[in-house]
C-alpha cells in the first residue's frame, strides 16, 4: 500500500464519516457522465460559463436552490460549505444540521458536505447532471475533498495560500502546504480515470486593494504546486479590481504567464482556464446600483476573455441572498453575455509591460530561495515578506506593502515592503499617485478606496 493510500485510510476512518468504499468511488468516477466534469465543458465551450454562489444547510433547500439555478440556465452549480465544516468541526456541523432540519431554520451558513456524506450528496449531483464547484475556504480540506470527489463534485476551489492568508490568523502555513499536496495528489489520481478533475485557485484573496502583481504571483504558484503533482486542468482566477483598464491588463498578463510558467515545468499538456469573479468588495446597498455593478462586471469578463464568471447578487449588501435573487443574477448575466457575444480587447501596453516585469521579478525571487522544494520556497517567501498580501489577518503575513488607488481607480503600490518590485516599476506606480498628502489624508483615501463601490 502506498504512503498516500495509508494516509487516505486514516483520514477517512474519521468517526464522522460513514464507511468509505474506495473501490466503489473509483468505479463511480470512472463511469461518471462527462457532463459532471467542468474540464469537459471548458474543452467544448462555445461561451463563457456562468457560476453563481450558494449553499444551504439542508439537502432539501440545497436541492431547491439548484432547481432555481437550472431554470435560470446555469452552467456550473455551486456548493458553498458551512464554516464549521471548513474548520473541521464536524460534531457541531452535525448538531446544527439536525437543528436546521427540525426547526426549518438555517443554523449553518452553507452545506455541511461531510455530515451529509457522499452517498446522499451524489444523488443530488447526478440528478442535475451539471458540473458542481466546491467553494469552501478550508486550510485542511483532505476529508472534505475526498467526500466531494466521491459525490461527483469535480471542480475543487482553493489552495494553501489563497485559502489561508485571507481567512486564518494562526493556522500553520507549512501544514496547509502539506494538506493541499494531499488534495492535489488525490485529484491527479482520479483524473486518470475519466475527464480531468479541475483545480481552481481563489484569486480575490482579501478582496481589499490587492495589487495585480501579488494576485498573479499567488495564482501562478498555486498552479505550479498543483501541476507538479500531476493535475491536468487548472483555473487561475482574479476578481474585479475597480479599474476596467487594470482588469483587462491583468487578464492579458495572467493568461500569458500562466501558460509560460506551466510550459516551463514541462506541463504543456495541462489545460489552464481563466475565471473572473464579479466585484468581491463591499457592495452598494442600493439594489439598482448593485445590478449595474454586476452588469459592468459581466462586460469586463467578456473583454478579459474569461472562461468562467462567478456571479454576485443585488442582495449582496444585505445578507445571504435568496435563491430567487441568485437565479435572477444568473439569468441576467447569461442575457448580458448573449448581447455582448465577444468584445474587442485593447490592452494598455505600458501597464502590461510594468505588470509583467513585477510578476517575473517576484517569481524569480521565490525560485531563488535556497529550499529544495517549491512549496518550501513559497513558504519561505511569505515568511520573509517577498510575497505580502494587503489586509491579510494571518500572523505570518508581513502587511508592510501599502496600496492606494490612483485618480483612474487603478490599485498602486506606494510602499513595497520586502516585495522585490523592480525600481523602475516602483517609481512608475508611485508617479501615478499624489503622495504629497499628509498621513491622515492618505489613510482616509485608503478607507475610501476600500469602500469604493458603496
Concise overview:
The protein is of the alpha/beta class and 454 residues long.
Q: What would you note in describing this structure?
A:
This protein has 454 residues and is of the alpha/beta class. It has one domain (3-340): Methylmalonyl-CoA mutase (TIM Barrel). The chain contains 18 helices and 10 strands. α8 packs across α9 (142-151), α9 (142-151) packs parallel to α10 (173-191) and α11 (212-227) runs parallel beside α12. The longest helix is centred in the middle third of the chain and has 21 residues, at 244-264. It starts with a helix and ends with a helix. The model has no long low-confidence stretch (mean pLDDT 96).
Which short descriptors sum up this protein?
8-stranded parallel beta sheet; TIM Barrel; alpha/beta; two-stranded antiparallel sheet; 9% strand
Task: Walk me through the topology.
Blueprint: H1 3-11, H2 22-31, H3 38-44, E1 49-51, H4 59-71, E2 77-80, H5 83-86, H6 90-103, H7 113-116, H8 118-128, E3 132-135, H9 142-151, E4 155-157, H10 173-191, E5 198-200, H11 212-227, E6 233-239, H12 244-264, E7 271-277, H13 287-304, E8 308-310, H14 323-340, H15 349-367, H16 374-383, E9 402-405, E10 411-415, H17 423-431, H18 439-450
Parallel strand pairs: 1-8, 2-3, 3-4, 4-5, 5-6, 6-7, 7-8
Antiparallel strand pairs: 9-10
Helix pairs in contact: 4-8, 4-14, 8-9, 9-10, 11-12, 11-15, 12-15, 13-14
Amino acid at each position: 500500500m502506498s504512503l498516500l493510500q495509508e494516509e487516505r485510510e486514516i483520514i477517512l476512518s474519521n468517526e464522522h464519516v460513514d464507511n468509505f468504499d474506495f473501490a466503489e468511488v473509483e468505479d463511480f468516477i470512472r463511469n461518471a457522465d462527462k457532463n459532471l466534469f467542468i474540464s469537459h465543458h471548458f474543452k467544448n465551450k462555445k461561451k463563457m460559463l456562468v457560476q453563481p454562489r450558494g449553499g444551504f444547510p439542508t439537502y432539501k433547500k440545497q436541492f431547491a436552490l439548484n432547481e432555481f439555478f437550472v431554470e435560470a440556465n446555469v452552467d456550473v452549480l455551486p456548493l458553498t460549505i458551512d464554516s464549521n465544516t471548513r474548520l473541521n468541526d464536524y460534531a457541531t456541523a452535525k448538531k446544527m444540521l439536525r437543528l436546521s432540519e427540525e426547526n426549518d431554520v438555517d443554523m449553518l451558513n452553507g452545506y455541511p458536505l461531510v455530515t451529509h456524506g457522499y452517498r446522499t450528496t451524489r444523488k443530488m449531483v447526478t440528478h442535475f447532471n451539471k458540473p458542481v464547484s466546491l467553494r469552501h475556504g478550508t486550510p485542511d480540506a483532505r476529508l472534505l475533498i475526498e467526500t466531494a470527489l466521491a459525490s461527483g463534485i469535480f471542480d475543487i476551489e482553493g489552495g494553501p495560500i489563497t485559502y489561508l492568508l485571507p481567512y486564518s490568523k494562526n493556522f500553520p502555513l507549512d501544514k496547509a502546504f502539506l494538506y493541499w499536496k494531499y488534495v492535489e495528489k488525490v485529484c491527479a489520481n482520479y483524473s486518470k480515470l475519466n475527464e480531468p478533475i479541475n483545480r481552481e485557485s481563489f484569486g480575490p484573496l482579501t478582496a481589499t486593494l490587492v495589487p495585480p502583481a501579488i494576485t498573479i504571483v499567488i495564482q501562478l504558484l498555486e498552479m505550479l504546486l498543483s501541476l507538479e503533482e500531476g493535475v491536468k486542468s487548472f483555473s487561475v482566477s482574479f476578481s474585479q479590481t475597480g479599474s476596467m483598464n487594470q482588469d483587462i491588463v491583468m487578464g492579458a498578463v495572467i493568461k500569458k504567464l500562466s501558460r509560460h510558467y506551466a510550459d516551463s515545468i514541462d506541463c504543456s499538456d495541462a489545460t489552464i482556464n481563466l475565471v473572473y469573479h464579479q466585484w468581491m468588495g463591499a457592495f452598494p446597498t442600493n439594489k439598482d446600483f448593485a445590478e449595474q455593478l454586476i452588469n459592468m462586471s459581466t462586460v469586463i469578463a467578456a473583454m478579459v476573455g474569461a472562461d468562467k464568471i462567478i456571479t454576485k447578487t443585488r442582495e449582496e449588501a444585505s445578507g445571504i441572498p435568496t435563491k430567487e435573487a441568485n437565479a435572477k443574477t444568473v439569468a441576467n448575466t447569461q442575457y448580458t453575455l448573449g448581447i455582448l457575444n465577444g468584445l474587442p480587447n485593447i490592452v494598455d501596453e505600458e501597464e502590461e509591460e510594468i505588470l509583467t516585469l513585477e510578476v517575473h521579478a517576484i517569481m524569480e525571487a521565490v525560485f531563488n530561495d535556497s529550499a529544495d522544494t517549491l512549496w518550501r520556497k513559497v513558504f519561505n517567501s511569505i515568511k520573509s515578506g517577498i510575497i505580502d498580501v494587503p489586509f491579510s489577518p494571518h500572523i505570518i503575513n508581513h502587511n508592510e506593502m501599502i496600496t492606494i488607488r490612483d485618480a483612474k481607480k487603478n490599485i498602486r503600490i506606494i510602499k513595497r515592503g520586502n516585495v522585490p518590485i523592480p525600481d523602475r516599476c516602483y517609481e512608475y506606480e508611485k508617479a501615478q499617485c499624489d503622495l504629497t498628502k499628509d498621513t491622515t489624508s492618505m489613510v482616509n483615501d485608503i478607507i475610501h478606496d476600500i469602500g469604493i463601490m458603496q
